[in-house]
Amino acid sequence: MTSVYLALGYLLLCVATVGLLLFLRARARQDRAPFPDNTRLLRGPGESHRQRLAALDDQALNVALLLLGLPAVGYGALLYLAARLAPGYPISSTLLLWFGLAGLLFAFWHGARRLVAIIDRRRNTRLGHFGERVVAEHLEPLKAAGYHVFHDLPAGEASDGSASTIDHVVVGPAGVFAIETKTRRKGRARVGFMAHEIIYDGDALAYPWGEDRHGLDQAHRQAEWLARHLANQTGRAVPVHALLVFPGWSILRKGRGPVHVLSPRELPDAIQKPTSTPVGLPGQPLTPADLDLVLRELDARCRDVEL
């Protein structure tokens, strides 16, 4: 009977913990905010990453609570079956307990694997969020030079059907710039390569561990989308420069391509004195009226953050 009481006590503790968490969450949602219901803020750096982090936190909490309560529920069910059902069946209570324990361990192992996967995704998402914050800080001085900076601009759907965003958009006297940020961890360097350096030849990226086009095609597609979108909204061609930024890396450029690859510290000069070729239809320099239309459109598109 002692084991039964222990199982019941553990189960009651789990139920009380879950109930307390649900109560606190419901109470937080009922708090009256001092803002009007229609208040919408501009998206901050890494807003999509922030939302993913919140969703991953909820998933991790749900799985952790499931793992917390699973032993008590499973053990209590096994004790009940062993005491009530096993005597009437050709299977012994001991064998029933072993089978139940095996199923319980499998369920626990599956839940633990899911929790580890969520933690890994959260770790990668947090790294991406931090990288976008780094880039945003390097863009901040441009505001004093008459530039406007928008973050996490919604840009329709990606190729996999998920929501696509442009990490940063800068608008100012030198034009419009679509900035894609890629935060990559450093790996073991090959012979002849620097561990902190990415080489760009105008077509592909050479990392210390290998070559690929990670981010190049995405940055170009997003700049094309932004050029089309602004042209549709303003009624005139709006060329957009495609920039790809790698926080924490040094970039060695050995060629030029449709996407300008650089490090965050190079951003202010690259935007105020652009050398890249913009995508989209060629057009005349934007007039103050054109800039005002572009800024109004981007502000409306990015102003969707609710409490």
Topology, pairings included?
Elements (H helix, E strand, L loop, with lengths): L1 H29 L10 E2 L4 H39 L7 H47 L8 E10 L5 E10 L2 E7 L15 E4 L4 E3 L2 E3 L3 H19 L5 E6 L4 E4 L6 E3 L4 H6 L15 H15 E3 L2
Parallel strand pairs: 4-8, 5-9, 8-10
Antiparallel strand pairs: 1-11, 2-3, 3-4, 5-6, 6-7
Helix pairs in contact: 1-2, 2-3
Task: Explain how this protein is built.
The protein has 307 residues and is an alpha/beta fold. The protein is built from six helices and eleven strands. It has helices at 2-30, 47-85, 93-139, 216-234, 267-272, 288-302, and strands spanning 41-42, 148-157, 163-172, 175-181, 197-200, 205-207, 210-212, 240-245, 250-253, 260-262, 303-305. The chain has a five-stranded mixed beta sheet, with helices on both faces. Strand 5 and strand 6 form a beta hairpin. Helix 1 (2-30) runs antiparallel to helix 2 and helix 2 (47-85) packs antiparallel against helix 3. The mean pLDDT is 84.
